[in-house]
Amino acid sequence: MNTILWIVQGILAITFLWAGFMKLFKSEDLPFPWVKENANLVMITGIVDLLGGLGIVLPTLLRIQPKLTIYTAYGIVALMTIASIFHISRGEAKDIGFNIFMLLMAIFVAWGRQKASIK
After folding, report:
1. What are the φ/ψ torsions at residue 109 (nearest 5 degrees)?
2. Distance between CA atoms of residues 23 and 39, nearest Å
3. In this structure, how many other beta carbons lie within 10 angstroms of the beta carbon of residue 59?
4. Given this model, what pLDDT does residue 63 score?
5. Total domains, the chain
6. Which spans in 1-119 are helix H?
7. Range of the domain at 62
8. What is the pTM of this model?
9. What whole-number distance in Å separates Cα of residue 117 and Cα of residue 35?
10. Residue 89 in contact with residue 115, Cβ under 8 Å?
11. Pick from 4, 95, 26, 19: which is nearest to 52 by CA?
């Protein structure tokens, strides 16, 4: 189970670090319409994505406050829920599959790491 958790955390970390980097440094290369319409939102979500990417692995990896990984996973759940609502409100409901997938992976990490911390 620990190996599966690490794989899922790695996928989340890579995804969120990439998304954060792209939003902060290469937003003009992103194909999403909302990116060109909301520069401040792009910057804010880029920072949140980078923090999520770091927070989903570093606390557990470094064994410094590993509960922060659980809190980060809950934060990703909240972020993906808000992102889904945002896309639905813009008539982009067809685009939320990725958000739902990330949300489910974050729920799995929160559940798995919380279960492991109870032992």
Report:
1. -65, -45
2. 9
3. 19
4. 92
5. 1
6. 2-25, 33-37, 39-55, 58-62, 67-89, 97-118
7. 2-118
8. 0.90
9. 38
10. no
11. 19
DSSP state of 96: -
Q: What is the DSSP letter of 27?
A: G
Burial of 89 (0-12, 13-18, 19+ CB in 10 A): exposed
Half-sphere exposure for 43 (CA within 13 Å, toward CB): 3
Token pair for residue 18? Answer: 């990439």
Whether residue 41 contacts residue 34, with contact meaning beta carbons closer than 8 Å, is answered with yes
Q: Would you write out the chain's pLDDT as a tens digit for each of its 119 residues?
A: 999 999 999 999 999 999 999 999 998 888 888 888 888 999 999 999 999 999 999 999 999 999 999 999 999 999 999 999 999 998 988 889 999 999 999 999 999 999 877 66
| Helix axis angle, 97-118 to 67-89, nearest 10° | 160
Q: What is the rounded CA–CA span in Å between residue 47 and residue 44? A: 5
